[in-house]
Protein backbone atom coordinates (compact mmCIF):
# COMPACT_ATOMS: atom_id res chain seq x y z
CA UNK A 1 0.00 0.00 0.00
CA UNK A 2 1.34 3.47 -0.90
CA UNK A 3 2.68 5.58 1.96
CA UNK A 4 3.24 9.34 2.28
CA UNK A 5 6.86 10.47 1.59
CA UNK A 6 8.83 10.64 4.83
CA UNK A 7 12.34 11.76 3.81
CA UNK A 8 14.03 14.32 1.49
CA UNK A 9 15.04 11.66 -1.03
CA UNK A 10 11.41 10.63 -1.53
CA UNK A 11 10.39 14.25 -2.05
CA UNK A 12 13.28 14.69 -4.51
CA UNK A 13 12.12 11.68 -6.55
CA UNK A 14 8.56 13.00 -6.59
CA UNK A 15 9.75 16.44 -7.72
CA UNK A 16 11.87 14.84 -10.46
CA UNK A 17 8.93 12.75 -11.65
CA UNK A 18 6.61 15.78 -11.69
CA UNK A 19 9.20 17.82 -13.61
CA UNK A 20 9.57 15.11 -16.24
CA UNK A 21 5.78 14.81 -16.58
CA UNK A 22 5.50 18.55 -17.18
CA UNK A 23 8.38 18.65 -19.67
CA UNK A 24 7.55 15.48 -21.60
CA UNK A 25 3.74 15.33 -21.45
CA UNK A 26 2.11 18.60 -20.42
CA UNK A 27 4.34 21.15 -22.18
CA UNK A 28 4.00 19.58 -25.69
CA UNK A 29 0.19 19.59 -25.31
CA UNK A 30 0.21 23.24 -24.23
CA UNK A 31 2.41 24.16 -27.20
CA UNK A 32 0.08 22.33 -29.64
CA UNK A 33 -2.94 24.33 -28.52
CA UNK A 34 -1.00 27.62 -28.30
CA UNK A 35 0.23 27.16 -31.89
CA UNK A 36 -3.28 26.23 -33.09
CA UNK A 37 -4.78 29.36 -31.54
CA UNK A 38 -1.69 31.51 -32.26
CA UNK A 39 -3.02 33.07 -35.49
CA UNK A 40 -6.45 33.77 -34.04
CA UNK A 41 -9.80 32.08 -33.79
CA UNK A 42 -10.81 32.96 -37.37
CA UNK A 43 -7.82 31.14 -38.85
CA UNK A 44 -8.45 28.18 -36.58
CA UNK A 45 -12.08 27.95 -37.69
CA UNK A 46 -11.09 28.34 -41.33
CA UNK A 47 -8.76 25.35 -40.99
CA UNK A 48 -11.43 23.33 -39.22
CA UNK A 49 -14.01 23.83 -41.98
CA UNK A 50 -11.50 23.17 -44.77
CA UNK A 51 -12.80 20.36 -47.00
CA UNK A 52 -9.63 18.28 -46.67
CA UNK A 53 -9.73 18.63 -42.89
CA UNK A 54 -13.39 17.60 -42.82
CA UNK A 55 -12.61 14.59 -45.01
CA UNK A 56 -9.71 13.57 -42.73
CA UNK A 57 -11.95 13.82 -39.66
CA UNK A 58 -14.69 11.73 -41.29
CA UNK A 59 -12.25 9.05 -42.44
CA UNK A 60 -10.56 8.87 -39.04
CA UNK A 61 -13.87 8.42 -37.24
CA UNK A 62 -15.11 5.96 -39.86
CA UNK A 63 -12.00 3.78 -39.49
CA UNK A 64 -12.33 3.84 -35.69
CA UNK A 65 -16.05 3.04 -35.90
CA UNK A 66 -15.27 -0.11 -37.92
CA UNK A 67 -12.11 -1.11 -36.08
CA UNK A 68 -13.43 -1.02 -32.51
CA UNK A 69 -16.44 -3.38 -32.95
CA UNK A 70 -14.38 -5.83 -35.02
CA UNK A 71 -11.64 -5.98 -32.40
CA UNK A 72 -14.22 -6.13 -29.62
CA UNK A 73 -15.70 -9.34 -31.03
CA UNK A 74 -12.27 -10.71 -31.96
CA UNK A 75 -10.79 -9.96 -28.53
CA UNK A 76 -13.67 -11.52 -26.58
CA UNK A 77 -13.71 -14.64 -28.77
CA UNK A 78 -9.95 -15.05 -28.54
CA UNK A 79 -9.86 -14.51 -24.78
CA UNK A 80 -12.71 -16.98 -24.35
CA UNK A 81 -10.93 -19.65 -26.41
CA UNK A 82 -7.54 -19.45 -24.68
CA UNK A 83 -8.95 -19.16 -21.15
CA UNK A 84 -11.73 -21.75 -21.36
CA UNK A 85 -10.13 -24.45 -23.50
CA UNK A 86 -6.80 -26.29 -23.39
CA UNK A 87 -5.90 -27.32 -26.92
CA UNK A 88 -2.85 -28.04 -29.03
CA UNK A 89 -1.42 -24.78 -30.36
CA UNK A 90 -2.75 -22.68 -27.49
CA UNK A 91 0.72 -21.43 -26.55
CA UNK A 92 1.46 -20.58 -30.18
CA UNK A 93 -1.84 -18.67 -30.40
CA UNK A 94 -0.97 -16.69 -27.27
CA UNK A 95 2.37 -15.77 -28.85
CA UNK A 96 0.88 -14.81 -32.21
CA UNK A 97 -1.56 -12.45 -30.47
CA UNK A 98 1.38 -10.22 -29.60
CA UNK A 99 2.64 -10.03 -33.20
CA UNK A 100 1.21 -6.52 -33.80
CA UNK A 101 2.95 -5.38 -30.60
CA UNK A 102 6.32 -6.73 -31.74
CA UNK A 103 6.08 -5.73 -35.39
CA UNK A 104 6.74 -2.21 -36.61
CA UNK A 105 3.53 -0.64 -37.97
CA UNK A 106 5.39 0.24 -41.17
CA UNK A 107 6.27 -3.43 -41.68
CA UNK A 108 2.62 -4.34 -41.06
CA UNK A 109 1.58 -1.86 -43.74
CA UNK A 110 4.13 -3.31 -46.17
CA UNK A 111 2.81 -6.84 -45.48
CA UNK A 112 -0.70 -5.75 -46.42
CA UNK A 113 0.65 -3.90 -49.46
CA UNK A 114 2.42 -7.06 -50.64
CA UNK A 115 -0.66 -9.20 -49.97
CA UNK A 116 -3.38 -6.97 -51.43
CA UNK A 117 -1.34 -4.81 -53.82
CA UNK A 118 -1.76 -5.01 -57.58
CA UNK A 119 1.44 -7.05 -57.96
CA UNK A 120 0.12 -9.97 -55.88
CA UNK A 121 -2.19 -12.68 -57.26
CA UNK A 122 -4.86 -11.74 -54.71
CA UNK A 123 -4.55 -8.05 -55.59
CA UNK A 124 -4.85 -8.82 -59.31
CA UNK A 125 -7.97 -10.95 -58.63
CA UNK A 126 -9.51 -8.14 -56.59
CA UNK A 127 -8.65 -5.60 -59.26
CA UNK A 128 -10.25 -7.79 -61.93
CA UNK A 129 -13.45 -7.65 -59.88
CA UNK A 130 -13.21 -3.85 -59.44
CA UNK A 131 -12.35 -4.16 -55.74
CA UNK A 132 -9.64 -1.76 -54.62
CA UNK A 133 -8.18 -2.52 -51.20
CA UNK A 134 -4.88 -0.67 -51.20
CA UNK A 135 -4.86 3.14 -51.34
CA UNK A 136 -8.48 3.19 -50.22
CA UNK A 137 -10.37 3.39 -46.90
CA UNK A 138 -10.70 -0.42 -46.98
CA UNK A 139 -6.94 -0.91 -46.79
CA UNK A 140 -6.62 1.76 -44.09
CA UNK A 141 -9.26 -0.01 -42.03
CA UNK A 142 -7.65 -3.43 -42.48
CA UNK A 143 -4.20 -2.33 -41.28
CA UNK A 144 -5.74 -0.41 -38.38
CA UNK A 145 -7.63 -3.54 -37.31
CA UNK A 146 -4.36 -5.50 -37.50
CA UNK A 147 -2.38 -2.99 -35.45
CA UNK A 148 -5.04 -2.69 -32.73
CA UNK A 149 -6.29 -6.28 -32.54
CA UNK A 150 -4.33 -7.42 -29.41
CA UNK A 151 -5.55 -4.75 -27.00
CA UNK A 152 -8.96 -6.15 -25.99
CA UNK A 153 -7.70 -9.74 -25.87
CA UNK A 154 -4.59 -8.88 -23.86
CA UNK A 155 -6.66 -7.00 -21.27
CA UNK A 156 -9.29 -9.75 -20.96
CA UNK A 157 -7.06 -12.85 -20.87
CA UNK A 158 -5.41 -12.28 -17.43
CA UNK A 159 -8.75 -11.28 -15.92
CA UNK A 160 -10.66 -14.28 -17.28
CA UNK A 161 -7.85 -16.63 -16.24
CA UNK A 162 -7.95 -15.29 -12.67
CA UNK A 163 -11.77 -15.55 -12.50
CA UNK A 164 -11.89 -19.12 -13.76
CA UNK A 165 -15.00 -20.80 -15.15
CA UNK A 166 -16.69 -22.08 -11.99
CA UNK A 167 -19.59 -19.62 -12.19
CA UNK A 168 -20.19 -20.40 -15.87
CA UNK A 169 -20.10 -24.15 -15.18
CA UNK A 170 -22.62 -23.65 -12.38
CA UNK A 171 -24.91 -21.72 -14.73
CA UNK A 172 -24.65 -24.48 -17.35
CA UNK A 173 -25.39 -27.09 -14.70
CA UNK A 174 -28.53 -25.18 -13.74
CA UNK A 175 -29.77 -25.34 -17.32
CA UNK A 176 -28.50 -22.12 -18.88
CA UNK A 177 -27.37 -22.18 -22.49
CA UNK A 178 -23.91 -21.11 -23.62
CA UNK A 179 -25.08 -17.68 -24.72
CA UNK A 180 -27.07 -17.17 -21.49
CA UNK A 181 -24.01 -18.10 -19.40
CA UNK A 182 -21.89 -15.63 -21.31
CA UNK A 183 -24.47 -12.81 -21.22
CA UNK A 184 -25.53 -13.15 -17.58
CA UNK A 185 -22.34 -14.47 -15.95
CA UNK A 186 -19.20 -13.80 -18.00
CA UNK A 187 -20.05 -10.39 -19.43
CA UNK A 188 -20.91 -8.72 -16.08
CA UNK A 189 -17.59 -9.97 -14.68
CA UNK A 190 -15.50 -8.58 -17.54
CA UNK A 191 -17.50 -5.49 -18.51
CA UNK A 192 -15.11 -2.87 -17.09
CA UNK A 193 -12.05 -4.55 -18.53
CA UNK A 194 -13.90 -4.84 -21.84
CA UNK A 195 -14.75 -1.13 -21.85
CA UNK A 196 -11.15 -0.32 -20.96
CA UNK A 197 -9.99 -2.37 -23.93
CA UNK A 198 -12.44 -0.54 -26.18
CA UNK A 199 -11.14 2.84 -25.03
CA UNK A 200 -7.51 1.86 -25.60
CA UNK A 201 -8.30 0.33 -28.99
CA UNK A 202 -10.15 3.45 -30.09
CA UNK A 203 -7.27 5.70 -28.99
CA UNK A 204 -4.76 3.66 -30.99
CA UNK A 205 -7.05 3.44 -34.03
CA UNK A 206 -7.53 7.20 -34.15
CA UNK A 207 -3.82 7.96 -33.85
CA UNK A 208 -2.29 5.21 -36.02
CA UNK A 209 0.21 6.63 -38.51
CA UNK A 210 2.91 4.18 -39.64
CA UNK A 211 0.85 1.35 -41.12
CA UNK A 212 -1.78 3.72 -42.52
CA UNK A 213 0.85 5.85 -44.26
CA UNK A 214 2.06 2.82 -46.26
CA UNK A 215 -1.36 1.74 -47.59
CA UNK A 216 -3.23 5.06 -47.84
CA UNK A 217 -1.63 6.56 -50.93
CA UNK A 218 -2.06 10.01 -49.30
CA UNK A 219 -4.81 11.17 -51.68
CA UNK A 220 -6.11 14.55 -50.49
CA UNK A 221 -9.73 14.46 -49.48
CA UNK A 222 -9.96 10.70 -49.92
CA UNK A 223 -7.38 8.60 -48.05
CA UNK A 224 -5.91 10.98 -45.50
CA UNK A 225 -6.62 10.35 -41.83
CA UNK A 226 -5.94 13.07 -39.28
CA UNK A 227 -2.38 11.90 -38.42
CA UNK A 228 -1.49 11.84 -42.15
CA UNK A 229 -3.18 15.20 -42.64
CA UNK A 230 -0.97 16.69 -39.91
CA UNK A 231 2.13 15.61 -41.81
CA UNK A 232 0.78 16.87 -45.14
CA UNK A 233 -0.11 20.30 -43.72
CA UNK A 234 3.31 20.52 -42.10
CA UNK A 235 5.01 19.75 -45.44
CA UNK A 236 2.81 22.44 -47.03
CA UNK A 237 4.18 24.96 -44.46
CA UNK A 238 0.64 25.40 -43.12
CA UNK A 239 1.79 25.45 -39.51
CA UNK A 240 -1.50 26.62 -38.02
CA UNK A 241 -3.44 23.99 -39.99
CA UNK A 242 -1.03 21.25 -38.89
CA UNK A 243 -1.36 22.24 -35.24
CA UNK A 244 -5.14 22.51 -35.62
CA UNK A 245 -5.31 18.90 -36.81
CA UNK A 246 -2.85 17.92 -34.07
CA UNK A 247 -5.05 19.72 -31.56
CA UNK A 248 -8.04 17.66 -32.69
CA UNK A 249 -6.06 14.47 -32.14
CA UNK A 250 -4.95 15.77 -28.75
CA UNK A 251 -8.58 16.49 -27.82
CA UNK A 252 -9.52 12.92 -28.77
CA UNK A 253 -6.63 11.61 -26.67
CA UNK A 254 -7.65 13.76 -23.69
CA UNK A 255 -11.25 12.60 -24.03
CA UNK A 256 -10.03 9.00 -24.02
CA UNK A 257 -7.96 9.75 -20.92
CA UNK A 258 -10.96 11.25 -19.14
CA UNK A 259 -13.15 8.24 -19.99
CA UNK A 260 -10.39 5.85 -18.85
CA UNK A 261 -9.98 7.75 -15.56
CA UNK A 262 -13.72 7.76 -14.90
CA UNK A 263 -13.92 4.04 -15.57
CA UNK A 264 -11.02 3.32 -13.20
CA UNK A 265 -12.61 5.52 -10.53
CA UNK A 266 -15.97 3.76 -10.94
CA UNK A 267 -14.33 0.33 -10.81
CA UNK A 268 -12.36 1.18 -7.65
CA UNK A 269 -15.51 2.60 -6.05
CA UNK A 270 -17.45 -0.56 -6.89
CA UNK A 271 -14.69 -2.70 -5.40
CA UNK A 272 -14.65 -0.62 -2.20
CA UNK A 273 -18.43 -0.86 -1.89
CA UNK A 274 -18.32 -4.63 -2.50
CA UNK A 275 -15.56 -5.03 0.11
CA UNK A 276 -17.51 -2.93 2.62
CA UNK A 277 -20.66 -4.95 1.99
CA UNK A 278 -18.72 -8.20 2.42
CA UNK A 279 -17.23 -6.96 5.72
CA UNK A 280 -20.71 -5.97 6.92
CA UNK A 281 -22.11 -9.40 6.10
CA UNK A 282 -19.21 -11.07 7.90
CA UNK A 283 -19.75 -8.91 11.00
UniProtKB/TrEMBL annotation:
Pfam families with a match to the protein in the record: BPD_transp_1
InterPro entries, alphabetized: CysW_permease (IPR011866), MetI-like (IPR000515), MetI-like_sf (IPR035906), Sulph_transpt2 (IPR005667)
Record field: transmembrane: 12-39, 59-80, 92-119, 131-153, 193-219, 239-259
Annotated ranges, domain ABC transmembrane type-1: 57-261
Presence of the UniProt keyword Transmembrane helix in the record: yes
Main location: membrane
Cellular localisation: Cell membrane
SUPFAM superfamilies cross-referenced by the UniProt entry: MetI-like (SSF161098)
UniProt entry keywords in alphabetical sequence: Membrane, Sulfate transport, Transmembrane, Transmembrane helix, Transport
PROSITE patterns per UniProt: ABC_TM1 (PS50928)
Oligomer status and interactors: The complex is composed of two ATP-binding proteins (CysA), two transmembrane proteins (CysT and CysW) and a solute-binding protein (CysP).
Name this polypeptide is given: Sulfate ABC transporter permease subunit CysW
Origin species: Isoalcanivorax beigongshangi
